[in-house]
Amino acid sequence: xxxxxxxxxxxxxxxxxxxxxxxxxxxxxxxxxxxxxxxxxxxxxxxxxxxxxxxxxxxxxxxxxxxxxxxxxxxxxxxxxxxxxxxxxxxxxxxxxxxxxxxxxxxxxxxxxxxxxxxxxxxxxxxxxxxxxxxxxxxxxxxxxxxxxxxxxxxxxxxxxxxxxxxxxxxxxxxxxxxxxxxxxxxxxxxxxxxxxxxxxxxxxxxxxxxxxxxxxxxxxxxxxxxxxxxxxxxxxxxxxxxxxxxxxxxxxxxxxxxxxxxxxxxxxxxxxxxxxxxxxxxxxxxxxxxxxxxxxxxxxxxxxxxxxxxxxxxxxxxxxxxxxxxxxxxxxxxxxxxxxxxxxxxxxxxxxxxxxxxxxxxxxxxxxxxxxxxxxxxxxxxxxxxxxxxxxxxxxxx
Length: 399
Description:
Mean pLDDT: 96
CATH class of the largest domain: Alpha Beta
Structural class: alpha/beta
Largest sheet: 6 strands, parallel
Radius of gyration: 21 Å
Oligomer: single chain
Number of helices: 16
Shape: globular
Distance between the termini: 35 Å
CATH architecture of the largest domain: Alpha-Beta Barrel
Number of strands: 12
CATH topology of the largest domain: TIM Barrel
Strand order of the largest sheet: 7-8-9-10-11-12
């Protein structure tokens, strides 16, 4: 199988030739790999992040999923919003970007900081007072009118030229989406549940319409899978709030992909065990990642494989700090083997990390993870992983 075929097969719950391996290297490592200050990636866009990501995955030899770092490119020809950005450099290692957004109902301002070797971090969000600023902000949530076909084709063609599966990502409503736009984040949103729930309901509807339209444009143009991004869907809210704001939109987006015959992969870091159940019971999402372990998450890979592995594919879940950043290559190999043993049999599994690998993750650890999957992750005719069991048996016998 090609990397492209292998990845899509596993996303759909099938048994490929071997376990695909795709450590999450969506931002930090690709940006670092360019050798450029991060403001050249995130502000000046001298190298598209998606291209830097593909370069990194080719360098390490993994099965790439460019949808981890790239959304469906769209255009809104009816927009009545004007964005203005000003960048300054208070010191050689820090860029500050000021935003001014003009809408028919008034102006919004915001600011984020980009350190030399860190992605953008907001320190002033566009809405300061929800009731006052909502009429302005809602202008930013108009659904797209068209696909940016030139950008879409460029990413697709580059993925296929390199032999990787092609899919892009859309978001969905929920506290994990809303908190990035309002000063005070989750705390402000919690008060809004009592003070102005009608704004949150409208916000949810507008984001849902926007994301469903983006997904529709991407799917109709031709993708091999569709990503859904919602980091912290449960961690930043609760199961009941996820059911209220996130799950209905996820269900619409996943149904759209299902009708087109392509799999879906949903990313939500943090606590996600209950989210697995919600996705299985209320949506047609075919795969979830990164299934973080405690303390950052709450997933036991063997348990979720046993309970839900026949209904949804799994992607994860090596610890990004204790194993990938601070561990040795031997520890990475051991945890990779254990993850494949716990969730790989019967297919529907992609070996990955429990969220994004830190910027300074040792190269030898990324190589160790990918080489372990390639060496031991081959399926037999019954969908078993005999080389994994053999390797773990040897490891246990010599421990």
